[in-house]
Write the structure tokens for this entry.
Amino acid sequence: MKASRLAVTGAVAATAVVVLSSPAFAHVSVQAEGTAAKGGYAVVDFKVPNERDNASTTKLEVTFPTDHPLASVMPEPMPGWKIEVTKSKLAKPLELHGEQITEAVSKVTWTATGKDGGIQPGYFEKFPVSIGALPEDADELVFKAIQTYSNKEVVRWIEVQEDGAEEPETPAPVLALSAASEDGHHGSTAAEEADAKTENAAATTEAADGDSSDTTARVLGVVGIVVGALGVAYGVLAGRRRTDA
């Protein structure tokens, strides 16, 4: 009997620990695909888990930082989701590639389409966004997210972590920024990487074409020499036949 009671008590305690700690494991978060270097560009994923057993996540609203506005924000198209990008006027214009930017994206909203759309219970989904240029005078960017469920429940992931304090119950997603490399390279976007691959492929093709042309020229040169030699030999033989005659 004592053993049974101890087992039941242990199980209840373990369940309580899991329930109390679950928010720390299943909150909305943000992470870069690769490196998020200061002054550069990056593709980041907002990871959204479904924490409910009886409802789907049907909407995600992410507010972008106003203390470090981003001149370029481009969400990736996602099947089953309608994406709305909201821009706001900047108090201080930004400069991007030599141009003055007077407004920046302040919020991106994803809304599930279809009756049974969204993130189902027991699943999570990533929402990719290309952002930049990342600030050079900050170590992190804080985003605030609002998660809406199909039962109209709303969870606000907007609490900022204070130094030395425990993690809040609904923490805001935080993106850590890494230092730029010594050579000044700040990272690249997927588009830039694709362009680089295209250029490399073109260079490889040109090199192959050049090698092919050079090889062809060498073959034709050798053939010409052989034909010339045969012509000389034929001429010599013809001269000897006439002399013998």
Observations:
- The two ends are 131 Å apart (CA to CA).
